[in-house]
Write a structure and sequence with these properties.
Length: 241
């Protein structure tokens, strides 16, 4: 499977990096993107040290030209993109009175519009091969809006609707589209620094571990098409619904 590529859009230090590691272990070449390419180097070094192949790219997922060039470059020079994970984060809390139009638009660009660009580009290549997987990372805000998260929730709701429509259109073309709702705190540096009950919750498995979360992405990729999952809701055992 060395000629097959897993493209992780938004390979951050926690969830995105864990997903990249899992797909690498699965036997795929991994291609990783962030706006700052230098931040990808430690992960690339870690993966290549195992004998696997990993490549990093600086790419603003909101830019159409950059997205088209990214996919073209990978397809021509690295391998066939068999799975795309859209994992761009835009979780910026702000009250509605403090949300100006520029901030709202930027959050929508990051969490929704960029998902459209990358999902569409993936579909262009996958439909020609009549196979592929496109996975979108969602959040609590994908299914319910909370106070102080109007911009983020509207964008995440939009991303979920995009994924639903793509799944119905592309499923008959043998392309698996799925949406992962992460309705919980994930063990990231931000959660560690800002969640007062972090240590207590982590001690009782009340915080989602990135590596365990990432296993679900590979599971979706491996599903037979007679039993595809569209939406996967992930939470620890004690998370409130």
């Amino acid at each position: 499977m060395k000629n097959k590529v897993a493209l992780i859009i938004g390979a951050g230090d926690a969830i995105g990096s864990a997903i990249a590691r899992k797909f690498s272990q699965r036997g795929l070449t991994v291609c990783l993107t962030r706006r700052n390419e230098e931040k990808l180097q430690p992960l690339i070094d870690e993966i290549t040290a195992t004998g696997a192949d990993a490549f990093g790219f600086a790419c603003d997922a909101r830019k159409e030209d950059a997205t088209e060039s990214l996919f073209s470059n990978i397809e021509e020079n690295i391998g066939e993109i068999d799975v795309v994970v859209f994992n761009v984060g835009a979780n910026v809390p702000m009250g509605i009175l403090e949300t100006d139009s520029r901030k709202f638009f930027k959050i929508w660009e990051m969490a929704c519009f960029a998902g459209f660009l990358n999902g569409r580009e993936a579909a262009r290549y996958m439909t020609k091969r009549k196979r592929g997987t496109i996975l979108f990372t969602g959040a609590t805000a994908s299914v319910r809006g909370s106070a102080g998260f109007a911009a983020f929730a509207s964008a995440k709701h939009g991303l979920r609707a995009l994924a639903q429509s793509m799944a119905r259109e592309l499923g008959p073309k043998n392309i698996h589209v799925a949406h992962i709702v992460i309705d919980a705190a994930v063990d990231t540096q931000w959660i560690k620094d800002n969640l007062p009950t972090y240590e207590q919750r982590k001690a009782v498995d009340g915080i989602v571990k990135p590596d365990d979360l990432a296993t679900n992405y590979v599971t979706l990729y491996d599903q037979p098409r007679n039993a595809w999952t569209f939406e996967l809701d992930i939470r620890p055992w004690d998370e409130k619904w």
